[in-house]
Design a protein that fits this description.
Residues 32-52, 66-76 have a biased composition (Low complexity). Residues 53-65 have a biased composition (Gly residues). Keywords: Signal. There is one protein chain. The chain is α+β, with helices and mostly antiparallel strands and 198 residues long. It is built from four helices and nine strands; from the N terminus they run αααβββαββββββ. It has one domain (2-193). It has helices spanning 2-20, 47-52, 73-76, 120-124, and strands at residues 80-88, 91-96, 103-105, 132-137, 143-147, 153-157, 160-161, 183-186, 192-193.
């Protein structure tokens, strides 16, 4: 009887984890990875790297809260964003003018007009906002934008919306890399980098 209860509890836990991993998956009907841009390193992420990156659920909350202060404030306040590159873990990735890392969400569909990150997802993964086309330095990706639910312009690279991670509190941090197996940094050419960076 105890084995049966443990088995039921394990099955319930697995089902709950799968449900949480659906962060925004209900909007747009996209499936994980089916419409995402080409990866520069294949699908080499693992559950271990997801856990090491602070994942708990698809939002990456991991059960702890952040102070809410991050480098994303300047781009969210309006004006034009600046995107440039930096090297982390041997990979050239895209960051903003303050060095804050930007990420792709694999549940977004390339070319979609709305983000798949909604509700609680937006609080932990705020969109990169710019009132005008961002200034680019060393980036060859195609820049565009989509509208957020509140009417702001969310920056896109190669047709995919980009985001900050609230747990990145300083320049060059990549705490969001591989969170829940759906959040990845962006290469200078707009490819999704799925390899570990630390």
């Amino acid at each position: 009887m105890n084995k049966r209860a443990a088995l039921v509890l394990a099955a319930f836990s697995a089902a709950s984890s799968l449900a949480l991993a659906g962060c925004g998956g209900g909007s747009g009907g996209s499936s994980s990875g089916s419409s995402s841009p080409a990866s520069s390193s294949g699908a080499s992420s693992s559950a271990a790297s997801s856990s090491a990156a602070g994942g708990g659920d698809a939002y990456g909350s991991g059960g702890s809260s952040s102070s809410g202060s991050s480098g994303s404030a300047s781009a969210q306040a309006g004006g034009g964003a600046e995107l440039k590159t930096t090297t982390v873990g041997g990979q050239k990735i895209i960051v903003d003018e303050k060095g804050m890392t930007v990420y792709y969400y694999t549940r977004d569909s390339k070319g979609a007009t709305v983000s798949a990150c909604t509700g609680g997802c937006i609080a932990l993964w705020p969109p990169v906002i710019s009132s005008e086309s961002p200034k680019l330095d060393g980036i060859t990706a195609t820049v565009g934008s989509i509208k957020t639910p509140d009417g702001k312009n969310q920056v896109t690279l190669n047709g995919m919306p980009i985001y900050y991670y609230q747990k990145d509190t300083g320049p060059g941090q990549v705490n969001g890399q591989a969170v829940a197996g759906v959040w990845y940094v962006v290469g200078a050419d707009g490819t999704m980098i799925t390899s570990a960076l630390k």
